[in-house]
Amino acid sequence: MNSLEMLNSILEQQRSQLDLILAEQKKIRKDVTTRNWEDLEAHIVTLNYLSQQFSVLEEKRANAYTEAKKDAGDKDVLLGNPLFHMVHQKLAASRIENDALNNYISVTRSFLQSVYDNVVPQRRNTLYSNKGNLIHSKPESLLLNTLS
Question: Three-state DSSP class for 127?
Answer without folding.
Answer: strand
